[in-house]
Amino acid sequence: MASSIDCPDRPRRAVSGAARRPAPAPVRARTRAWWPAVVLVVLTVLAGCGTGDGTGAREDPAATGHTAREAPSRAAPADGVPGAAGTAQGRPATEAPAVIPGLGPRTRAWIPAGARQVVVVTGRDRDANHSQAVLYRHTGTGWAAGAAWPARNALRGWTDDHWAGDLRSPIGVYTLSDAGGRLPDPGTRLPYDRSEGFTVSGTGFEGEPLEGSFDYVVAIDYNREPGTSPLDLTRPLGGDRGGGIWLHVDHDGPTQGCVSLKKEHMRDLLLALDPEAHPVVVMGDAASLRQ
To answer: Using CA atoms, how far apart are residues 183 and 215, in angstroms rounded to an integer?
Structure first.
């Protein structure tokens, strides 16, 4: 798929977008590779991303210090989930619910207290590679839901113990810090790295073309260093826990670990995400997220 993949190492660069911030923690020195060699490595890696034989570079993130589930903010109230009457804590159905529907107390506790934008990606079941994504925005009194977008996830579904090459998407809550793509910045407030390094070719698990899958990308902060390009190869937990788990453009097939959305929905998401709202993604199968 054109999904989470290990991308070639790249020197840090200036990125566009209204939001700017220093990278957290000391930044490791990186060497500048000769560009033709970088292009060759990128094409080699991406061609194996989502190929039907399941070989090639794998994308996976292991829970890092930037994963909310490692440090729950606080237990969210158990009540307030909309009931059969379509109300939340006694509010009319037209008002935003006090808690995000479909998320259980454990999952809600993983969401940082300061998060005001939450992308919820819900898988149909543990082994399914079809899912749905909804962007929730906190209004000050409750959570307002955006449109429900069809999404794809990893070929074999979901896991709460993700390793490189398992062809499952990691379950958890992860911050969203950086974006990029082959196309120009559409106007996102996230730091945006436009690069030909996001070029991909070949076919996915179902024989679908991968071209254009990385036109727009939002890095999921799973086993990566926030404040860097999505192409950065730093893996705090080591390469065996994978890396390069992204939100990216759908190629009409399952991914190796990423979550993919239709191109127009990826563009809408990029325009909506606001670093000042501390956006996170909550992702997993429905049963796991209800815990």
So the answer is: 5
- 172-181 vs 280-285, strand pairing mode: antiparallel
Strand segments (E) across the chain? 117-123, 130-138, 143-152, 158-159, 169-170, 172-181, 192-194, 217-220, 246-249, 259-261, 280-285
CA distances from 122 to 23, 281, 282 (A): 30, 11, 8
> Which residue matches tokens 């399952």?
254
Contacting residues for 251 by C-beta, under 8 A, at least 6 apart: 1, 2, 50, 204, 208, 209, 210, 212, 213, 260
- The pair of structure tokens assigned to 181 is 């793509």
| Residue 45, phi then psi, degrees to nearest 5 | -65, -45
DSSP state of 285: E
Q: Which of 115, 109, 104 is nearest to 137 (CA)?
A: 115
pLDDT, averaged per 10 consecutive residues of the chain (291 residues), comes to: 41 41 34 34 34 34 42 34 31 72 97 97 97 97 97 98 97 98 98 98 97 98 98 97 97 98 98 98 98 97
Residue 34: φ, ψ to 5°? -65, 130
Alpha-carbon distances of 7 from 37, 60, 180, rounded to whole Å = 13, 12, 13
- CA-to-CA dists, residue 29 to 6, 32, 77, 90, 240, angstroms: 18, 10, 44, 55, 22
**Tokens (6 digits) for 137:** 């925005």
